[in-house]
């Protein structure tokens, strides 16, 4: 079986969930991350993006939200898939609440309004993917934290 990497010369990237969880908890304790954005008490880190040459069409990242906090309601052109690594939350999608916890896999359709409210005293950690890439621009210093563009 042959596997073709979409970016010439790119190597596969393997992430370890336990290492990612540890890194995000340490970043929250420090109040920052070298390649992440600290916003309203939470941290978002983009791991894979066309912006840094690690992918062609998708973005992958991590999000850490401390107990008692919520993300702002937002939407973006990309479809999003997120997996909860730890913590519990209520995710509101177009005002409908969904209870999630470790092991939950969440699919958010393109342009769905959504926000995450942490519901217990544990830090909520999630691994997420945007497809197509582009909606991660608000988390990238190299893009000036610009809001994602809606293409017609």
Automatic annotation (TrEMBL):
Residues 64-122 form the Cupin type-2 domain. Pfam families: Cupin_2. InterPro entries: Cupin_2, RmlC-like_jellyroll, RmlC_Cupin_sf. This is Unannotated protein.
């Amino acid at each position: 079986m042959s596997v073709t990497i979409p970016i010439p010369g790119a190597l596969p990237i393997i992430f370890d969930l336990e290492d990612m969880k540890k890194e995000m908890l340490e970043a929250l304790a420090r109040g920052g991350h070298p390649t992440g954005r600290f916003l309203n008490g939470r941290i978002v880190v983009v791991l894979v993006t066309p912006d840094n040459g690690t992918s062609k069409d998708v973005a992958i990242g991590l999000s850490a939200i401390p107990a008692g906090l919520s993300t702002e309601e937002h939407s973006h052109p990309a479809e999003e898939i997120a997996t909860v690594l730890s913590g519990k939350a209520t995710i509101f999608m177009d005002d409908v609440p969904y209870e999630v916890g470790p092991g939950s896999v969440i699919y958010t359709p393109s342009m769905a309004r959504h926000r995450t409210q942490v519901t217990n005293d544990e830090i909520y950690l999630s691994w997420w993917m945007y497809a197509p890439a582009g909606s991660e621009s608000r988390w990238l210093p190299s893009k000036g934290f610009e809001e994602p563009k809606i293409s017609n």
